[in-house]
């Protein structure tokens, strides 16, 4: 009996000594913040190694949940983008029609050497296609472009699209044109052209798609929606203008390089491609701010691959041609 009592007492004393050492150790850890953090990290690693296993079930959205677009009114918007790459959307109600000669309203507050490059009337739920000089295409819903006031500069496009170094947006197309325009017509700096079905670019790939294959040293200049039987004006930096029929360019795949659309003399290149309208005039614009309107009948239809005819005389005072537009007498 005495032996059992002594054995029990010895066990208690040993246990008390162990507890005392543990208490001393824990108090030392609590008193040292760096050591405490180290111990916590070690214990978390041990927990992860012991219990971290891949999830065996999949978390999926409830089909009954509301889509974000259910909470966004499909209102009419004006999308604006500057040459420096700043974008924004504005409610169409912020603008109102004015008579000829009016001063208009401010559409954007721009910094020096920046200018409005794209202005599109669309709706909040519509997709916008962004085509870059590298021949890639990206897609955004109009409501994904941050809205801003008329006087605000907007958001840089690089915050919305995964553009690569030295990649810039050359064309923006509203996909509501799917209903009436069957094709997208591409034109490159070296004068190559391509026609592809509009629906070939209906993809949600976040990293973008190849829109057109480019030869070395070439870049995409213009992308315009067409109906399959349109006529187009190809305009060069030296003012040469070629009118061709879309029907002479067969439809090709999304990544095709296209065919020769226009030839150039030395040091010349393509700056613009626009769809012809018999009821509108062709407006050539130069680097020095000069413009010239010409009746479309002044340019006869030619086969693709030609040099075209002079649409505007390029001089040192006028500067080179930077672009062309098709405008009507009543255009706002």
UniProtKB/TrEMBL annotation:
Residue runs in coiled coils: none
Task: State the Gene Ontology terms under molecular function.
Answer: ATP binding; DNA binding; DNA topoisomerase type II (double strand cut, ATP-hydrolyzing) activity
Under what name is this protein listed?
Answer: DNA topoisomerase (ATP-hydrolyzing)
Per the record, its GO cellular-component terms are: cytoplasm; DNA topoisomerase type II (double strand cut, ATP-hydrolyzing) complex
* Record InterPro entries: GyrA/parC_rep, Gyrase/topoIV_suA_C, Topo_IIA-like_dom_sf, Topo_IIA_A_a_sf, Type_II_DNA_Topoisomerases
Sorted alphabetically, the Gene Ontology BP terms of this entry are: DNA topological change
Q: What is the lineage of its organism?
A: unclassified sequences, metagenomes, ecological metagenomes
């Amino acid at each position: 009996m005495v032996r059992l009592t002594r054995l029990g007492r010895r066990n208690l004393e040993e246990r008390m000594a162990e507890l005392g050492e543990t208490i001393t150790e824990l108090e030392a850890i609590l008193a040292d913040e760096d050591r405490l953090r180290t111990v916590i990290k070690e214990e978390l690693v041990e927990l992860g190694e012991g219990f971290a296993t891949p999830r065996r079930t999949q978390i999926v959205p409830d089909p009954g949940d509301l889509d974000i677009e259910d909470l966004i009114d499909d209102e009419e918007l004006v999308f604006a983008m500057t040459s420096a790459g700043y974008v924004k959307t504005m409610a169409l109600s912020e603008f109102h029609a004015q008579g000829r000669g009016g001063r208009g309203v401010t559409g954007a507050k721009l910094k020096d050497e920046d200018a409005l490059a794209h202005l599109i009337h669309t709706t909040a739920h519509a997709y916008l296609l962004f085509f870059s000089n590298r021949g890639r295409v990206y897609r955004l819903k109009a409501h994904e472009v941050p809205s801003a006031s008329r006087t605000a500069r907007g958001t840089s496009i690089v915050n919305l699209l995964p553009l690569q170094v030295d990649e810039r947006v050359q064309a923006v197309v509203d996909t509501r044109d799917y209903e009436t325009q069957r094709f997208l017509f591409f034109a490159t700096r070296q004068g190559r052209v391509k026609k592809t079905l509009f629906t070939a670019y209906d993809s949600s790939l976040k990293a973008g798609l190849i829109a057109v294959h480019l030869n070395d040293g070439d870049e995409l200049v213009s992308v315009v929606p067409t109906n399959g039987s349109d006529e187009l004006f190809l305009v060069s930096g030296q003012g040469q203008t070629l009118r061709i029929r879309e029907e002479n360019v067969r439809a090709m795949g999304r990544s095709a390089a296209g065919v020769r659309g226009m030839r150039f003399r030395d040091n010349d290149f393509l700056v613009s491609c626009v769809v012809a309208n018999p009821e509108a005039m062709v407006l050539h614009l130069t680097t020095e701010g000069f413009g010239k309107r010409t009746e479309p009948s002044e340019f006869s239809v030619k086969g693709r691959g030609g040099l075209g005819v002079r649409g505007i005389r390029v001089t040192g005072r006028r500067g080179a041609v930077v672009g062309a537009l098709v405008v009507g007498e009543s255009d706002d």
